[in-house]
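Final report, closing paragraph on structural work. Over the funding period we assembled a curated collection of sequence-structure pairs, and we close with a single example.
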Amino acid sequence: MTEQIALWFESLFPSETSRELIAFIVSLFPVLECRGGMIIALAAGVEFLKAFVICYIGNMLPIPFILLFIKKIFAFMKKHGILTKIVLKLEGKTEKHKEKIDKYGHWALFTFVAIPLPGTGGWTGALIAALFNISFKKALPVIALGVLTANIIMSVVTYGAGAVFGF
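Its predicted structure, as stored:
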């Protein structure tokens, strides 16, 4: 699914748009993050190391802002009717991880961010950290390491498969 979304996203850009810029922009988005960025980078022929750095930075760029501002954004959204449902749904999704976070602490947050599966990643990890009142100072390095690990895994999967299968 991530691959289909990433390739659809690439089709939205004019052909003269930088391949690196597209990979960076894709990496900024929730759900896609570095997973989608690495797929786009490989498909576009971006050199591995350049793709790795670009996708990591793209994935990490929104994280500090989520950690710092998501509670204020949610409070604002709750005051505006239809947006309340969205916030309650997101809060409900994070609440189901509370027991694991309470039990395993930072390891649970790291693991959640590091495993490159749909619904996991830096965005959701930052949301969980903010809603469970994990301090910015503690959450940011854990999430950064998790995103780095996810990017390593995706690099092996995408560029490794690309080398094996010749794309």
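The chain has a mean pLDDT of 89. The two ends are 19 Å apart (CA to CA). We thank the funder for supporting this effort.
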